[in-house]
Design a protein that fits this description.
One of its GO terms (molecular function) is sodium:phosphate symporter activity. Pfam families: Na_Pi_cotrans (PF02690), PhoU (PF01895). It is a multi-pass membrane protein. Keywords: Cell membrane, Membrane, Transmembrane, Transmembrane helix. This is Na/Pi-cotransporter. This protein is mostly helical. It folds into 2 domains: 334 residues, no CATH class; 211 residues, Methane Monooxygenase Hydroxylase, Chain G, domain 1 (Up-down Bundle). The chain is 77% helix and 0% strand. It is elongated and about 110 Å long. The chain starts with a helix and ends in a 5-residue tail after the last helix.
Length: 571
């Protein structure tokens, strides 16, 4: 081959790859801009409308159409399942809908809108430099829209120049899936399907594969039959993203990823089976006949619209056929990936939920509630079972150390999760909640530390070989009753916002402070009357101070939890 031909081919291939790169970059910018502009409510739809399979399907389609990526939606759903926010069957309806929503990209790029590309890039660039966050998000969206279509135009223009080249025409003819003697060639059909699958697995974006196929179709290098098989392969290949996301997840999340794969494999199988059902004497399969009916015109000029309609038609058919059989498909997934007799472990701080800041913050609150419950249970155990009775047990101390280490780990995990979330471009009101949550985890961890202080006081009272007087025991029990009520209300407030709870908690905190002061005065009076020994008296007062510190930690948590709840971040 002459040198100038080699150089020419090299330039053309580089231009095509550059166009594909711009297409991918534009799609990424548009997706991220839409996610920021639409707000977290769009992401929350996936959780809150998942209870009904049909509504779940519509919500999955809506959110995916907005975020322009079924991968983002599906990975988020895997995160919901792994965190215990969705059941397997709830997730399946949303995943089915996500497949329909992702076809919006193909529909967009199939239209000729060359005249708005450069104005979109210019307007988007101007908006990106505006200080108002909402406009910046829309700027990213508009700029990404322009870049996406610019990349698409680059690919289409370059591919059209190759459509008259005999070498390229011969190459693409090896994948030609047009009917021969009234039937589609089986091996070419399989070959095109595998090519679409592998390309999508490699770039992990069915939308990018679809854009490339639309460009190939618009250039005349492939026909509708070949394009449809490449699209069907890409629908199977895109499920690799959910499979990768489920690797570190629990088995129910793995079942949800398996449902995504089975949905596309079964859907492709059903549609491909119809390719051998002809509708007329020319041997046109019924699927392609429907595409002709949906698209005005069947020339090369109209081929991009036919490809986009084929992509949408396939996913709608698959969803309509399989949605009624979600329970049966769920049971099949459970047989393929059984949970077994072990308990399913849900990951509350699910990394994939970082894509949905509101839900990530709510999950952090769930983890905080569990951490606070553990810290408070330690206080109850050591005060009621060790300190008040004057007992000391080294085994109990060892157990407390293990439990205290667990709360330390919880604090670290929540803090790391919130730190990762803080690195995202959060709305200011959400970003302001993160320091409050971090302070809450610090206070919950300190409550766990206070139990070790109380247990040390139990050791000292035990070594004195003396017990508290009945009056002192009664005072401690009254204080613990008030503190227990306060702790339960605080734990409840962390889990579910109620407007009046903070006021009640503050009143209890004030009451505990007054009780501590009163009991300290009573004890000093008993010391003057020599009704108890000085060494026990010192321990009594020190223990009151520790319990007041616990009360202060609880009210700190309650005040911040109330502020977070007022922002709608607590269920």
């Amino acid at each position: 081959m002459p040198q100038h031909d080699t150089t020419s081919y090299y330039t053309l291939i580089v231009t095509i790859l550059a166009g594909l790169s711009l297409f991918l970059y534009g799609m990424k910018m548009m997706s991220e801009g839409l996610q920021l502009a639409a707000g977290d409510r769009m992401k929350s739809i996936l959780k809150f409308f998942g209870s009904n399979r049909v509504i779940g399907m519509f919500s999955g389609a809506l959110v995916t159409a907005v975020v322009q990526s079924s991968s983002v939606s599906t990975v988020m759903v895997i995160g919901f399942v792994n965190a215990g926010l969705l059941s397997l069957m709830q997730s399946m309806g949303i995943i089915f809908g996500a497949n329909i929503g992702t076809t919006i990209t193909a529909q967009m790029v199939s239209f000729k809108i060359d005249g708005v590309i450069f104005p979109a890039i210019i307007l988007g660039t101007v908006m990106i430099f505006v200080s108002y966050r909402g406009l910046r998000a829309w700027g990213d969206t508009i700029f990404g829209f322009g870049v996406l279509f610019f990349g698409m135009t680059m690919m289409s223009t370059t591919l059209k120049s190759l459509s008259v080249n005999p070498d390229f025409l011969n190459f693409f003819s090896t994948f030609d899936c047009a009917p021969v003697a009234g039937h589609l060639p089986v091996w070419r059909v399989v070959g095109a399907l595998v090519v679409g699958l592998l390309v999508t697995m490699a770039i992990q974006s069915s939308s990018a594969t679809t854009g490339l196929v639309v460009a190939l179709g618009g250039s005349g290098l492939i026909n509708l039959y070949t394009a449809v098989l490449l699209i069907l392969g890409s629908n199977i290949g895109t499920t690799i993203t959910a499979q990768l996301a489920s690797f570190a997840a629990n088995r129910v999340a793995k079942q949800a990823a398996m449902a995504h794969t089975l949905f596309n494999v079964i859907g492709v199988s059903v549609v491909m089976a119809s390719f051998w059902l002809v509708t007329d004497g020319r041997g046109t399969p019924w699927f392609f006949k429907v595409i002709d009916l949906l698209t005005e015109g069947s020339s090369v000029e109209h081929l991009p619209r036919q490809i986009a309609n084929a992509h949408t038609l396939f996913n709608v058919i698959a969803a309509v056929l399989l949605t009624p059989f979600i329970p049966q498909l769920a049971r099949l997934c459970e047989k393929i990936i059984p949970v077994g007799s072990g308990k399913v472990e849900f990951v509350f701080l699910e990394p994939h939920l970082l894509e949905a800041p509101v839900l990530a913050l709510r999950q952090s609150m769930v983890a905080l509630q569990m951490m606070l419950r553990e810290s408070w249970d330690m206080v109850v155990d050591v005060v009621n079972n060790q300190f008040i009775p004057g007992r000391y047990d080294e085994a109990v101390k060892a157990d407390l150390l293990v439990r205290e280490e667990k709360t330390d780990r919880s604090q670290l995990e929540i803090t790391n999760y919130l730190t990762r979330l803080m690195q995202d471009d959060l709305a200011p009101r959400y970003a302001a909640m993160i320091p409050k949550l971090m302070h809450c985890t610090n206070d919950a961890e300190r409550i766990g530390d206070h139990t070790l202080n109380i247990h040390e006081l139990a050791r000292r009272i035990h070594n004195c070989d003396r017990n508290f007087s009945d009056t002192a025991v009664s005072e401690y029990r009254q204080m613990m009753a008030a503190l227990t009520l306060m702790a339960e209300k605080t734990i409840a407030l962390v889990g579910k916002f109620e407007p009046d709870l903070l006021r009640e908690i503050i009143e209890l905190n004030d009451k505990i402070a007054l009780m501590a002061h009163e009991y300290e005065e009573n004890h000093i009076s008993r010391l003057r009357q020599q009704l108890c020994s000085p060494d026990v008296g010192v321990i009594f007062i020190e223990a009151l101070a520790v319990l007041v510190k616990v009360s202060d930690r609880l009210v700190n948590i309650a005040e911040r939890a109330d502020a977070i709840g007022r922002e709608g971040l607590v269920a």
